[in-house]
Amino acid sequence: MQTVWMRRLGLAAATVLAAAGSTAAQETIKIGVPVALTGTYADLGEQSRRAIMFAVDEINAAGGIRGQKAEARFLDTEAKPDLARRQGEKLALEGYKLLIGTVASGEGLAMGPMLQRWDALYISTINKANQITGSACQPRMFRANRLDASDGAVVTPWLAERKETKWAIMAADIAWGRDSGASFIKSAQANKRTIASENYSPFGTNDFAPYIQKIKDSGAEGLWVALAGRDAINFATQAKQFGLFDSIFTAGVSFVTDNTVKTLGDVSKGIWGIINYSSTLDNPANKKFVADWAKKYPGTEPSNFEGETYIGMQVLLQAIAKAGSSKPADVAKAMEGTTFDTILGKQLMRKEDHQLVGPNFFGYVGEKDGKLKPIVTMSVPPETATPPADAACKMPG
């Protein structure tokens, strides 16, 4: 295990353990996780927690970084922006200034402007809203996952091959859902497709019947869904009951993730969508990660959000090693413009907007090895999948 982590961090054994007897080695690297542990996004929050603890236990088993072990503290945000800001501040005040793993984009956007005041740093591993690395970018805020615009870059060529000309949108009425809807409309327009119905449901909606009826009445031939967690499950279950999936071709983002598929079972079979990470991706680093994951969490494979959050932890821990410090300012400096070794290959953390430049994928829910899971059918390389830095991001020089 130690050899694996030294290789991932690009460090020699002497470097990792050099400070084993120093005062610094007695301190821990404190990682704060303001994340939804209850409510609509509780399952996503649990996935974030599992990935973070996997990485923490892995690096600690390898002796830590420069002799320093890592620890993580989790506080429940219920996926509410105001609560995320309060919990993020509490963690920072308690010394857990390296923040990561928050679920909803609104939470990341709420914490971003406060990071320098808290002397903290935040890495998004799930937040998709373009503003995170666009108009709301911050010197101490980074993103290791794919943004909405990246998903749009994958949808556009895929949509060109589809026969459906009229589409409906069903998305969450939050920053991410609105961004996803806008990205899909842009892709539709590029392919001369029309939008017959746009629908944005409040976070935590239980009754989707009015939206489903509106979509059915619109005459749409295709449906784009941007819902996650309990919202996704509630919508899919009710859509199946109303026969929506039988009459309208369905695709989406965060709608065909592993845990949602596991909960929905056959209801999800045949649904297409964005796949930001999959345990089925065939490269040595990912295959080892999946095998090690199965040892820690028997009978499971890492989900979309678990894979993305683990990548965020790889970036964070490698940046700490490069900086020789766990101080947020030092880690932020070490992160900018650096290429990191990840389970999806080498990925650059772009200096201009703090967006990790990586690949993206598209596929469908089908059977593989006797299980229903998202199966990748199209891979888009990093330089194509990651749009140029948004000019709206004005990072201080």
UniProtKB/TrEMBL annotation:
CDD domains: PBP1_SBP-like (cd19989)
GO biological process: amino acid transport
Keyword Transport listed: yes
Family, as annotated: Belongs to the leucine-binding protein family.
Domain (Leucine-binding protein) ranges: 28-366
Keywords, sorted A to Z: Amino-acid transport, Signal, Transport
Pfam entry (one): Peripla_BP_6
Organism field: Stella humosa
Protein name: Amino acid/amide ABC transporter substrate-binding protein (HAAT family)
Signal peptide: 1-24
